[in-house]
Amino acid sequence: MLKIGLTGGIGSGKTIVAQIFKNIGIPVFYADNEAKKAYGDDEVRKQIINIFGEKIYVNSTHIDKHLLASKIFNDKHLLEKVNNIIHPTVGKYFENWFAKQKSIYVIHEAAILFESRFDKFMDKIIVVNAPQDLRIMRIMNRDKQPYQKIMKRMENQMNDEQRNASADFIINNYMNIPLLPQILKIHETIVNLT
């Protein structure tokens, strides 16, 4: 069973792409959702509190996302510390999930696939692209976040050129380019690899 990484910059539309793969019967692991759950893990919680104090948690399992973001997206050292706690936990979640799957391949969807070094464990990589101005508009509409906050988050991710250089497949998610034919072509190629 192949492990296929799916990534793209914030607002590129990788979640929609992942949903289409799921709709055609391919299991999808959503790393970003699992990372949110990881903050409720007892060991993770202890380590995060050790860095930021109790106030970083809203309750025993939910992190204060806005407070955490305000700290880590303004301090690369803190971001790295948090990533070094969360990524190994998400990696364990993925391996447990993967062991239960029965498919030709699975999709591992992650915003920071390369930054977290999960790309090393993937057999192939799909990158979803969209122009930056379109991505910013999507995020502003979706998350109701100001432009400056969005740019701060984008600065902490690889740019499209860097991601594309390591991609096996590229999906263009622009306004007038249909996704389904691109996804079905990639699906067919991956199926033929097995």
Tags for this model:
five-stranded parallel sheet, 194 residues, single chain, Rossmann fold, alpha/beta
Category by helix and strand content: alpha/beta
Order of helix and strand elements from N to C terminus: EHEHHHHEEHHHEH
By DSSP, the count of extended strands is: 5
So what's the CATH class of the largest domain? Alpha Beta
The averaged pLDDT comes out at 91
- The rough form would be described as globular
Uncertain runs are none
Description:
The chain has helices at residues 14-23, 31-38, 42-52, 65-72, 76-99, 132-143, 147-155, 160-165, 179-193, and strands at residues 2-8, 28-30, 105-109, 124-129, 169-172. The chain contains 9 helices and 5 strands. It has 194 residues and is of the alpha/beta class. It is 53% helix and 13% strand. The chain is globular. The model has no long low-confidence stretch (mean pLDDT 91). Strands 2-3-1-4-5 form a 5-stranded parallel β-sheet, sandwiched between helices.
What is this entry, summarized?
The protein has helices spanning 14-23, 31-38, 42-52, 65-72, 76-99, 132-143, 147-155, 160-165, 179-193, and strands at residues 2-8, 28-30, 105-109, 124-129, 169-172. The chain is of the alpha/beta class and 194 residues long.
